[in-house]
Amino acid sequence: MKAENNLDSDDMRGLVWRLAFPSMLAQFVSVFYSIVDRMYIGNITGTGEIALAGVGICGPIVTLISSVAFLVGVGGSPLMSIRLGEKNERAARQILANCFLLLTVLSAAITVIALLMKNHLLMWFGASQATFPYANAYITIYLLGTVFALLATGMNQFIICQGYAKVGMKSVLIGAVCNIILDPVFIFVFHMGVRGAAVATVLSQMASCAYVLKFLFSERAPVRITFGEYDWQIMKRVLLIGLSPFLIIAFDNILIIALNTVIQKYGGAEQGDMLLTCMTIVQSFMLMVTMPLGGITSGTQTILGYNYGARRPERIKKAEVHIAVLGLVFTTVMFLIAHTIPQFFVWIFTQNETYVELTVWAIKIYTLGIIPLAAQYTVVDGFTGMGIARVAITLSMFRKMIFLGGAFLIPATMGIKYIFYTEPISDFVSAAVSVTIYFLVIDKIINRRPVLGRQKA
After folding, report:
1. Rounded (10°) angle between helices 165-184 and 146-160
2. Which parts of the chain span the membrane according to its record (predicted)?
3. What gap in Å lies between CA 285 and CA 291, rounded to an integer?
4. N or C: which end of the chain has fewer CB within 10 A?
């Protein structure tokens, strides 16, 4: 099968666009069908708002579990890109085989552990007596599809890193379309409520997983999944590189969980559930920013990894510039939407004017720093794409620590309503630090040959 993109010689601006746009669109669609879930749930007659709060509690847990897919997928795909850049197809094939085994084992283990701990997790993560039944109903069914969700997301990275961004996008579109069609059927036609939303999501993930694995086992893929040549040293290196995106996603959700807990603590019985519902809607809007932005920066990692392996520093620099510009354009558009017409987004979830007024205000505050956030994503995902895990993890964790500090200090000193300022403060500060570090170290990194043997992955 002819490759969609030539990572060796294609014009860099066109190459970045062709890899970034399908990945960005795939992530946007992925967020959209997550929002469709919440939209239908929020409009369930009589229980919509409280059911939405319950599913909002599940959101961080679901994404925390999903971050394991990036631990392996984004951990292994840069290594595979580097090997392809070195023209070492055998080593690339060995990396893919080890990642498939590793992700399958982790998926099965996480399913069992999460099902055993789900009741405790929901209470720890902010469920109240009113929201627990809805959260428990959703998460129980969702967890049964964990293997399909993780394999679909994680193995899709190995399609994209071979230059097949459109194929990767189709896998997400299949799941999205299935979910959008099945949601109203299970929620309203079969009267299953939040359980119906979870069933629709699991079936959609199964469809995406089947498409991804069919491609990677077929002759269409230049490097296919094989069995054997398993090496614990390869798996360790994958986990080390994947630790950065894993921690980014995992800590993002730990921070959201912390926000939910703080909201319940300081909001009390009177404000807690209402603020939690508003935060769920705000976080849904932020997913429309961060997921497509992450699609731009992670979808183009293969360019950086490939050219790092091929020892082409000038192509790396050109790619980084185009990635940053594309990210800034996207976040600027989303900033304008957030500050001009956020009410149209809020109305999707609720028509309650008290909720609408508070949530519109919160979205405007929460999104103040999303334009510089593009620089943060470009730098961190860029280092990850070249296998420079230590720098990526350090910069990511710095941002999380600022956010975590704000989440506990701001409500205690200024009041619970001001908790929405935690996001823009962390966005501005972390972006400034990350850009500074990038210019200080990038030349040393990209002019240094990767310390990797050619015969062993």
Report:
1. 150
2. 15-35, 50-74, 95-117, 137-160, 172-191, 197-217, 238-262, 274-300, 321-341, 361-380, 401-422, 428-446
3. 10
4. N
Whether residue 391 contacts residue 383, with contact meaning beta carbons closer than 8 Å, is answered with yes
Q: Report the distance separating Cα 319 and Cα 422, nearest Å.
A: 31
Whole-Å CA distances, 214 to 99, 158, 296: 16, 13, 25
Residue type, 122: L
The structure's pTM equals: 0.75
CB within 8 A of 328, min separation 6: which ones? 371, 374, 375
User: Which tokens sit at 172?
Assistant: 């997400």
Give the separation between CA 137 and CA 133, rounded to whole angstroms.
6
Dihedral sign computed on CA atoms, order 436, 85, 455, 228: positive
Among 270, 276, 263, CA closest to 411: 263
Q: 């600022």: which residue's tokens? A: 402
